[in-house]
Design brief:
263 residues; mainly alpha
Length: 263
Amino acid sequence: MSSSPGLGARCARIVQVVRTLAPRDVRVRYRQSLLDVAWALISPIVVVIVYGLVLTQSFDVSSACSPYLTSAWTGLVVWTFFATAVGGAVGSLIASSDLITKVYFPREAVPAAMALSALPDLAIGLVTLVALMLIQGVRPGWAAFGALLPLVVLLVWTVAISMLVGVVAAFIRDVVHGVHLALRVGFFATPVMYEASFLPPQLQWSASVNPVAVVITALRSTLLCNEWPDTRLLAIHLVVATALVVVAMMYTRSVESRITDVV
C-alpha cells in the first residue's frame, strides 16, 4: 500500500469526495417521500408544540428577549441539525461497506458527507426562524451579523464529532447505539426548549462546555436579544472543534487499512 498523503492533500481529497457524496445523501434521504423536504419542518414543529405546551403550562418556562415560541424554535433548529447529522453519520461507514471496499478514498469523508447532507434542513430551519421572528414582532438588529460565528462553530463541531464517531463505530458497533442514546439524553440536558439560565446552579457550567448549548445561546443573543455573543467562548470552541477534526483525520489515517476488514 502506498504511503498516506499529507494532511493538506488529505483535506483536499476529503472535500472532493464530500462534494460528490453529500448531494447523493440528500437525494437518498428524501427519495420516495411524499412530503419530501417538508419533513425537515414537521418533526421539530411537533416537538415544539408538545414540549412548548408542557413547559409553558406546567412549568411556566418563558424567554427573556422574545416570545417563548421563537426562543424554543431557535434551539430546535440547531438541535435538529446536529442530531440528524451525527445520528446519520455514526453508522454511515457500516452502511457504505459496498463503496469503501471497492474504491479507496479517505474514509472519514463518508461520515463528513452524511453530516453535511443535513445542511439543507438547517437552511430551511433558519429561514422559518426568521419568518417566525418577524411574525412575532422580533426585529433583528446589527448584532444579527454576529450569528455567523456560532453557525460556523456548529458546523465544525458537527463534522468533527460525525467523523470521529463514524470511524470508531466501524470497529465498535455499540457506539451506534450509544450515540443515539446520548442524543436522546442530550436533548433534555441541552437548553433547547428552555434557556441556559433555567439550568440549576450546579449545572450552569455545562452551558459553556456543551458546544450545542453554546451555539444556541449565541444565536438567541444575536438574533433575539440584539446582543453580541461571547466571542471568546465561541473562539475557544472553534479552536477545539478544529483540533478534533485534525485528530479524527489522523486517527482515521492510522486505522483505515483495517476498516475494510471490519465493515
